[in-house]
TrEMBL record:
Protein name: Zinc-ribbon domain-containing protein
Protein's organism: Diversispora epigaea
Top-level taxon of the source organism: Eukaryota
Gene3D superfamilies: VSR Endonuclease
Length: 374
C-alpha cells in the first residue's frame, strides 16, 4: 500500500494558528471528520480537516464580506482574454482560475498529427482551423473518416474499427489491400459470413469479416502455419473449406456437386418409398480402420436397401481429386468395396447410381428389380 501521512489534532491547531484563528476541537479522527473552528473575528463554524488544509477554505462569514472591487481587479488578469463567471472566494482562497486556460491548451495541426501518431494512425488534413471543424483521419487498418479534433481528444477514434459504421465489401477489399492481399468475394452479407481472401503469396481461404478486420486479427492461415482446413475447388468451380483429414483419409469431396445429385436421387426414391432414414452411419460400418464409421447416402433399413450416389472419382483416377497420387484412388476403391461387403454381411442390398446415369431411370429399375415397386 502507498505510504499515507497521518495527521493529528496538533496539525489542525497549527493551520488555524497560521490563519490567526483557532481549532476548538480536542480530538482528531481522520481528515473527513468535522472539527470546530474559530476565526480572528470570533466567528465559529464546523468543517473537516481536508477542506481546511487541502481546499484552503476558512471562515465563510468573512468570505461573504464584500471586498473592494480593486482587489478583484488586481487578481483578474487573463492574457488570453477569456471571460467567465466565478465565486470570488474560489479565486482568492482556492486558487481557481480560467477554465479555458486550465483545461485546453491551444490546438494546432501538429497536435492533431501527434495524437493520430500515438494511435498508430495519421491525420491527413493539411490545415487546422479550430476544434469544431472536421479533419480527415486514417487508422492503422486504412479506414478514413472525418472528425473534429475536439472529439478525437476525447478518446474517440476510428468508427469503422469500433463497429459504428456498417461494413461493406469495399471496406473488406481495403483491408485486404492494406495487407497486400485481395478480397475475392463479390457480395458482403454481415460480419460473420465467410468471405474469400487471397494473400500476397496467392493462398486462398475463407474467413469471416469479424475475424479479419480487427488489429491483430487473423490473416493467411497458410503463411501463419495454422492450416487445419484446406480450400478445395472441384471441376465445376465450386469452392469450399474442408479438413485435410476428410480429404486425404476419408476421401470426401465437393458437397455442392454431391449433394445436388444426391438430393435429386433422394427426392426420386422418396416418391416411391417415402423419406429415407436419418441414420447415415449405422454401427455395422464401424471398423478398426474406420472408427468414425463409413457413411451411406440413402438408407432404408426397413427395406434392407441403401443407394449410393457415385461421382467419377469412384470410377477412375482423377489427378486433381486424388491429389496427384494414384494410391488415393485405390484407397477410394477399397473403401467402396469394404462398404459393399459390410452391407452384404448385414443383409443390406447396396445399389449404385453413377454420375453418368439418368437417376429417374436407374432408380426405378433398381426398385423394380427388388420388387419394391411394380
Amino acid at each position: 500500500m502507498p505510504f499515507q501521512i497521518k495527521y493529528s489534532i496538533y496539525d489542525a491547531y497549527k493551520i488555524a494558528e497560521s490563519r490567526n484563528g483557532q481549532c476548538l476541537s480536542d480530538h482528531y479522527i481522520n481528515c473527513n471528520t468535522p472539527l470546530r473552528w474559530k476565526c480572528a473575528k470570533g466567528h465559529e463554524w464546523t468543517a473537516n480537516f481536508h477542506s481546511i488544509k487541502n481546499c484552503k477554505t476558512w471562515c465563510s462569514t468573512c468570505s461573504d464580506t464584500r471586498l473592494d472591487i480593486s482587489v478583484a481587479k488586481e487578481l483578474a488578469h487573463s492574457k488570453n482574454g477569456h471571460e467567465w463567471t466565478a465565486n470570488f472566494t474560489r479565486i482568492k482562497n482556492q486558487g481557481a482560475w480560467c477554465p479555458d486556460c486550465a483545461h485546453r491548451r491551444p490546438l494546432t495541426l501538429e497536435i492533431a498529427k501527434k495524437i493520430a501518431f500515438s494511435r498508430n494512425g495519421e491525420c491527413l488534413s493539411t490545415e487546422y482551423i479550430n476544434s469544431n471543424v472536421p479533419m480527415q483521419w486514417q487508422c492503422i487498418m486504412g479506414y478514413k473518416w472525418n472528425a473534429t479534433l475536439s472529439n478525437i481528444k476525447r478518446d474517440q477514434w476510428c468508427p469503422h474499427c469500433a463497429g459504428v459504421i456498417s461494413h461493406t465489401l469495399e471496406i473488406a477489399k481495403q483491408i485486404a489491400y492494406s495487407r497486400n492481399g485481395k478480397c475475392l468475394s463479390t457480395e458482403y452479407k454481415n460480419l460473420e459470413t465467410d468471405l474469400l481472401w487471397s494473400c500476397a503469396k496467392g493462398h486462398e481461404w475463407y474467413a469471416s469479416f469479424s475475424g479479419i478486420k480487427n488489429k491483430g486479427g487473423t490473416w493467411c492461415p497458410y503463411c501463419a502455419g495454422n492450416v487445419r482446413y484446406t480450400l478445395e475447388k472441384c471441376t465445376n468451380g465450386h469452392l469450399w473449406n474442408a479438413p485435410l483429414f476428410n480429404i486425404k483419409v476419408l476421401g470426401t469431396w465437393c458437397s455442392f456437386c454431391r449433394n445436388k445429385c444426391e438430393n435429386l436421387c433422394r427426392e426420386i426414391v422418396t416418391k416411391y418409398l417415402g423419406p429415407p432414414s436419418n441414420i447415415r452411419q449405422p454401427d455395422f460400418l464401424k471398423t478398426y480402420d474406420h472408427p468414425l464409421r463409413l457413411e451411406l447416402d440413402i438408407y432404408y433399413p426397413e427395406f434392407g436397401l441403401t443407394i449410393e450416389v457415385q461421382g467419377q472419382q469412384h470410377k477412375k483416377y482423377i489427378e486433381f481429386f486424388h491429389r496427384g497420387d494414384p494410391s488415393n484412388f485405390f484407397k477410394q476403391q477399397i473403401r467402396d468395396q469394404l462398404k459393399k461387403k459390410l452391407c452384404e454381411e448385414n443383409w443390406i442390398v447396396l445399389k449404385v447410381v453413377w454420375y453418368y446415369e439418368d437417376p429417374y431411370i436407374v432408380i426405378r429399375e433398381h426398385l423394380r428389380e427388388l420388387g419394391l415397386i411394380e
